[in-house]
Amino acid sequence: MNDSTHDSANDPTDAPTPDFAPWSPTFLADPYPAYATLRARGRVHWFEPTRQWLVPHHADVSALLRDRRLGRTYQHRFTHEEFGRTAPPPEHEPFHVLNDNGMLDLEAPDHTRIRRLVSKAFTPRTVTQLIPYVDQLASDLVAALVVNGGGDLLSSVAEPLPVAVIAQMLGIPESDRAPLRPWSADICGMYELNPSPETAERAVRASLEFTAYLRELIGIRRRTPGDDLLSGLIAAHEDGERLTEQEVISTCVLLLNAGHEATVNATTNGWHALFRHPEQLALLRANPQDLVPQAVEELMRYDTPLQLFERWVLDDIEVDGVTIERGAEVALLFGSANHDPAVFAHPERLDLTRAENPHISFSAGIHYCIGAPLARIELAASMRALLDQAPNLRLAAEPERRPNFVMRGLRELLVEA
To answer: What pTM value is reported for the model?
Structure first.
């Protein structure tokens, strides 16, 4: 649906949605009751502030993630004008060049080609070989936290672990890693709803600096290849096809951003949930060997690190009798889908023994997270290390949430060990 043709007067889904308030601190503290209201009211809702259709049910979110009538981009089929959209401001171009050449924001045939080539370098064997490094790093980080008697779990364990792992995979020298997290945070600010001009300015600056750094590193790897993922991306080819330099740069940034933003938030959201459910934490401590894998899945479901994923409607679709026309944007509410009682018994409960757990925290369809196996390894490694070395870990202060909706996380998580 083109923005200009939405007729709210005749649309029963257009009743106000006061419960869905993504800029409200109250909503950000706990969005799940609002999701329950949305699900009860229907399968699709027009949200005027972002001019998007909200989709809150698991079955619909799961189906639309796989529906090829929707896409992360429309530019493989339409110009901005043909699609009824306005081109991004020219000053945002560095961000969009970086973002739009990564496979997350591409559709076939480019997505197919890039994912196939990335998969040649990002293999299950590559990930499996990292397990000893991840386990040792998690152990060392937790040991330092324990020596200090506690501290901020986010900055001391949750954040450095996945950043170091992705940097290690890519072959980024340790001396160059300090800017990676700030660059990533600034770029990811653009994925929030209606980002501010200041957010865009930071994202553009980070895009320019990150691109310049990677371009220089790619030059070094071309001259002296290593056994790292960056060298593998440069070398990957099939039927004469290779990744362009921009595609290599965009892929590296995507792997860093997606490879740690969700993991950081899943770690801190997860431990915060465990502290608020002492009976579940006690269960986990009593049987970590069996429960850690299930705990990782349940904690990602219970407080979803990525709350929303957007798709453009490339061809008309219908949801619950409502026609959503080409040119519209849908907001697939992962957090709501993961609490849908049609799929999860007692979804409001944290249940580490939950056997059936088809959460969609890693998305679905062709854009299913390529780094999901690595994320699971990292989350399990830090959880095991904390259970083993800090058996009396407890919350030191109630944390403050980051003022973000899409990427749900905490500012810090102060603990005593």
So the answer is: 0.92
Closest among 274, 265, 289 to 379, alpha carbons compared: 265
CA dist 398 and 374 (Å) reads: 30
Judged against a pLDDT cut of 70, whether residue 193 lies above it is answered with yes
Q: What's residue 10's pLDDT?
A: 36
- What local confidence, expressed as pLDDT, does residue 17 receive? 66
- Lowest mean pLDDT segment, chosen from 6-10, 96-100, 252-256, 379-383: 6-10
Give yes or no for a contact between 162 and 378, defined as CB atoms under 8 angstroms apart. yes
Q: Which CATH superfamily is domain 3-416 in?
A: Cytochrome P450 (1.10.630.10)
Phi, psi of 277 (to 5 degrees): -130, 70
| Contact (CB, 8 A) for 338 and 357 | no
C-alpha 267/C-alpha 378 separation (Å) is 9
Q: Is the dihedral of CA 32, 34, 39, 44 positive or negative?
A: negative
Average pLDDT for the chain: 93
Amino acid, res. 387: L
SS (H, E, C) the chain: CCHHHCCHHHCHHHCCCCCCCCCCHHHHHCCHHHHHHHHHHCCCEEECCCCEEEECCHHHHHHHHHCCCEECCCCCCCCCCCCCCCCCCHHHHHHHHHHHCCHHHCCCCHHHHHHHHHHHHCCHHHHHHCHHHHHHHHHHHHHHHHHCCEEEHHHHHHCHHHHHHHHHHHCCCHHHCCCHHHHHHHHHHHHCCCCCHHHHHHHHHHHHHHHHHHHHHHHHHHHCCCCCHHHHHHHCEECCEECCHHHHHHHHHHHHHHHHHHHHHHHHHHHHHHHHCHHHHHHHHHCHHHHHHHHHHHHHHHCCCECEEEEEECCCEEECCEEECCCCEEEEEHHHHCCCCCCCCCCCCCCCCCCCCCCCCCCCHHHCCCCHHHHHHHHHHHHHHHHHHCCCCEECCCCCECCCCCECCECCCEEEC
Measured distance CA(341)–CA(356) in Å, rounded: 13
Domain ranges of the chain: 3-416
Q: How many CB atoms lie within 10 A of CB 167?
A: 20
Number of residues that make up the chain: 417
